Amino acid sequence: MDGERKSSEAGERAAQGLREATAKEEAKNESKKEHDLAKGADRFEERSKSSDGNSAEEKQKG
Predict the structure, then answer these.
(1) 2-61, pLDDT tens digit by residue?
(2) Which pLDDT score, from 0 to 100, does residue 3 have?
């Protein structure tokens, strides 16, 4: 049981570090673009279009 608790705490610390690093990277990218990045479904659509210019819906049809 004690080993499980230590693992969980280590995992939580690692996850927190990853969230902080991701937030820092996102902020850096947003400052370069001079606007906030899209979030959620908007971001999915933005990334889909940036790969080849077609939306996810257009890709499914084709």
Answers:
(1) 556 667 888 999 999 999 998 898 888 888 877 776 677 777 777 777 667 777 677 777
(2) 58
Alpha-helical (H) ranges within 1-62 are 2-33, 40-52, 56-61
Q: Cα–chain-centroid distance for residue 32?
A: 17
CB contact set of 44 (below 8 Å; sequence gap of 6+): 56
CA-based end-to-end distance of the chain: 53
Residue 9's alpha-carbon distances to 4, 34, 38, 49, in angstroms, are 9, 37, 32, 39
What pLDDT was estimated at residue 2? 58
DSSP-derived secondary structure letter, 37: P
